[in-house]
Amino acid sequence: MTEADVAAVSAIRVTGWKAAYAGIVPQSHLDGMTIEADTQQRRQHFKRSKERTTNLVAADTLGRVVGWACFGPFRGTGTGATTGELYALYVQPSLIGSGIGRTLLEAVHAHAVTHSFDLVLLWVLNENTTARRFYERAGYVADGAVQADDYDGVSVSEVRYQRSL
Q: What 3-state class would DSSP assign to 56?
């Protein structure tokens, strides 16, 4: 990913949230998301995290960004230095099921191995059954850890998955 890809990544991220989390995250939160605001936030994050975080994009045959994955060291506690975390994986909603997500996930795994990670963790919204099935088909298993995030006063549960590399 380059800085020039940030706006396209934000468009995929915002439309992905609105498609995948409708009925899970409060609609007021989803309605408040804008590509412009996300682009500003993503640009700042991209500049700050270049050394610690790997951002990968998938492009179609015309060079348009159609997917994005973000990976780095695990942000929590209680794990070793060889534990990585998949922070995000989004595919343009109209292309879900086309193999782009699987390709990005395989690229994340390859990157993780080359950087001496032997375990990858990720968080998934508990009610996002589509994403949970995707990760389970890729060899991830829920490890029993749970957390919740607040969206417009509503607590939304997440479950943690892991996969050994």
A: strand
Cα(23)–Cα(13) distance, integer angstroms:
17
Q: Is the pLDDT of residue 118 over 80?
A: yes
Contact of 75 with 85, CB cutoff 8 Å: yes
Q: How far apart are CA 26 and CA 127, in angstroms?
A: 13
pTM, 2 dp: 0.94
| CB burial of residue 160 (10 Å; 0-12, 13-18, 19+) | middle
CA separation (Å) from 129 to 2, 110, 111, 160?
Answer: 31, 26, 26, 13
Element holding 102 (H helix, E strand): helix 100-114
Backbone angles phi, psi at 63, to 5 degrees: 85, 5
pLDDT of residue 97: 94
Strand order from edge to edge, sheet including 141-151 = 54-59, 65-73, 83-91, 119-125, 154-164, 141-151
Q: How confident is the model at residue 66 (pLDDT cuts 50, 70, 90)?
A: very high
